[in-house]
Amino acid sequence: MTTEEFIAILNARTALLNDPNLRERLALIAANQVSVDVKRRVFQKGIAQDGLEIGKYSSTSAYFPINKPGLPSINPLGKNRRKPGQKQNKTFYAKDGYSQYRKRVGRQNNRVDLNLTGSTALAVGVGQVDNRLPAFGIKNADAVKIIDGNEQRFKANIITPSKSEVEAAREAVREELRFIFGIPK
C-alpha cells in the first residue's frame, strides 16, 4: 500500500467517524441490544436488574374481570353453566389471588414477569424523541405506571439495564466499528 492510498483510507475513515448517520447507527445498535437483553430478562425470565427474581404473584383471594382486552374470556363459574334467568357475572373470584387468575387466563404464575397481555412488553423498547438519537425506554404512560408500581411493590429496579446489559451494548457497538473499519476481532 502506498502512502497516498493509506492517507486516502485514513481520510475516508475520518470522514465516516464525523458522519452524523454513524452516530445514529451506533446508537440504534446499542439501544436495540439493551432492549433485547432487558426484555428477555424481565418478560421471559422474571429477573430484576440485580439478577434476583422480581417476586411472586399474590395468592390473596380477590375478584378479577372476566373480559379483559387481550385475554381469553373466562367463565366465572368454572365448567358450570349459568342457570336460565341468572345474570352474567362480570368478575371471577380467585381464591388463590392474582396467581390463580393468571393461571386461569393461560399465563405462567410461578414468578413475576410483568407480562399479562403483552402491552407492557410492547411499550418497552427503542424509540426516538424530538429528532434525538434512538434510545431504550418506556414508550407510554400506562406502561410507566405498571412498571413503577411493580418496582415499588417489589423494591427492585426492573427495567433499568444492568451493568452486563450495558456492557453487551458497548460490545455490539465495538463489533460494528470493527466491521466498518475492517479490523479483525
Could you characterize the architecture of this molecule?
By secondary structure, this protein is mainly α. The protein contains six helices and four strands; from the N terminus they run ααββααββαα. The chain is elongated, with a radius of gyration of 24 Å.
Strand order in space, largest sheet: 1-2
- Name the helicity range: 40-55%
Backbone structural class:
mainly alpha
DSSP strand (E) fraction?
5-15%
Question: What's the average pLDDT?
Answer: 88
Unreliable residue stretches: none
Please describe the biggest sheet, giving its number of strands, its sense, and whether it closes into a barrel: 2 strands, antiparallel
| Strand segment tally | 4
Count up the helices: 6
Radius of gyration, in Å, reads 24 Å
- Give the overall shape: elongated
How many angstroms does the end-to-end distance come to? 22 Å
Topology pattern, helix = H, strand = E: HHEEHHEEHH
